[in-house]
Every structure is written in structure tokens, then in C-alpha cells.
């Protein structure tokens, strides 16, 4: 499928594959059944990184997610202690969403999780050297392409 030069379609499909691998790598112990999927929650988290004080409606408008899905993700993040909400003092009908001032136990669990198993499964290898090489490439890409990266 890959040619000498990657095109936009291949890049998009690679991104989707990486999203699926990331979902597989997310720890789920103790989370229980959820009505909102991991992908939706992560899209909301990503939007919150770029807009640290926002509302459900604003997130829905920016992401294209239905407002009900954003509300579900916000409820899940609030229950996990990752975000806090409060009534906007300027508009009592609006609820502001912010990252929690302290790192929640759930966020600590996610940050401590390893991606090596999911990478090995996706690559179809149990060779630690190959897995380490892929992880190193992904870390390099993340450093260069992530929002706020100094290399952009």
C-alpha cells in the first residue's frame, strides 16, 4: 500500500491505526462499563488542552461531536477527577470546564501505562528490539508534531 512518498490518504489511515492502537493501550481496569467511548473522551481531552476553559457547547462546535456525546465525556472525566466544572459567573446558564488542579488517580494510571504490548500486537512481533524501535519513532513524531511542540 505504501509508495515511495506517503500521500494524504495513507497518512490519514495511519492516524486511524495509531488511534486504535492507543485505545488498545489504554488501561481499563476498574473503569467499568461506560456509555461514552474512549475515543470521544480523548477528543474532548484534546480540545481541552487547546482551550483550557470552555463549555460543552463550545467543545461540540469545535470537534463536531454531538453535544450529548461531549456531555457524556465531560461526565466521565469529572467522575475520574480529571476535570472540574463550575457555573460561569458572567452567565449563570453556562458551565465552565477546566482541567482539575491536581492529577487524578485515573490520569496517573493512564500516564503510567505502557504502549509496548499494543505496539507489539499491532506490528505482529514479540521482538523487543523491533517494538523499542517503533516506540522510539512514535516518540520522535510526538515531540515534533504534538500541539505546542517547539519543533513546529
UniProtKB/TrEMBL annotation:
PANTHER family: HTH-TYPE TRANSCRIPTIONAL REPRESSOR YETL, TRANSCRIPTIONAL REGULATOR, MARR FAMILY. InterPro entries: ArsR-like_HTH (IPR011991), HTH_MarR-typ (IPR000835), MarR/SlyA-like (IPR039422), WH-like_DNA-bd_sf (IPR036388), WH_DNA-bd_sf (IPR036390). This is HTH marR-type domain-containing protein. Residues 24-130 form the HTH marR-type domain. One of its GO terms (biological process) is response to stress. GO terms for molecular function: DNA-binding transcription factor activity. It comes from Planotetraspora phitsanulokensis. It comes from the Bacteria.
